[in-house]
Design brief:
Shape: elongated
Length: 58
């Protein structure tokens, strides 16, 4: 997997997931874990947005 990334992306990956892009790109199990976490974070964010919208439009 050939990824182009910046130092800021590397720092964010380390802070968010505890691993760098080199390891992320090398190990399928790590990629799957990170992507599952991202999907869960996205779903939680969507729940919050919908709840805020519901409260605003009461």
């Amino acid at each position: 997997m050939n990824l182009n990334y910046t130092s800021e992306m590397e720092k964010a990956m380390q802070q968010s997931h505890g691993l760098g892009y080199a390891e992320y790109s090398r190990k399928l199990s790590k990629r799957l874990h990170v992507e599952k976490e991202r999907e869960n974070d996205h779903k939680e964010s969507q729940k919050i947005v919908h709840e805020v919208e519901r409260l605003i439009h009461k």
